[in-house]
Amino acid sequence: MGIPEGETKPEEQRLGPVLRRRDQVQPGTTDQRLLDTEGDSEWVHTDPWRVMRIQSEFVEGFGALAELPSAISVFGSARTKPDSPEYAAGVRLGRALVEAGFAVITGGGPGAMEAANKGAREAKGVSVGLGIELPFEQGLNSHVDIGVNFRYFFVRKTMFVKYAQGFVVLPGGLGTLDELFEALTLVQTRKVTRFPIVLFGTEYWKGLVDWLRDSVVAGGKASERDLLLFHVTDDVDEAVALVTKETGK
Question: How far apart are CA 228 and CA 187, in angstroms?
Answer without folding.
Answer: 11
